[in-house]
């Protein structure tokens, strides 16, 4: 197993992690390990949407509306 060191962690964050760990009945190290594991395994929403689009045949045929509006300066008066 690998180890990491986190430097410069705000004291309030450390206190909050300690409180969460106590609430969950585990060490602070186990709490941080669980948080990092869950965060790393969470699917990336953009990649998940791309995967779903590919599963249904892609999005290459979707119509793209033309942009025919003209930019104008804002009037603040």
TrEMBL record:
Q: What is this protein called?
A: Toxin-antitoxin system
Pfam families from the UniProt entry? FitA-like_RHH (PF22513)
The UniProt record lists the Antitoxin FitA-like ribbon-helix-helix domain at 3-40
Identify the domain of life: Bacteria
Ranges of compositional bias, category Basic and acidic residues: 66-77
Q: Which GO terms describe its biological process?
A: regulation of DNA-templated transcription
Q: Which organism is it from?
A: Candidatus Brachybacterium intestinipullorum
What InterPro entries would the database entry show? Arc_rbn_hlx_hlx, FitA-like_RHH, Ribbon_hlx_hlx
Q: Where is this region: Disordered?
A: 58-77
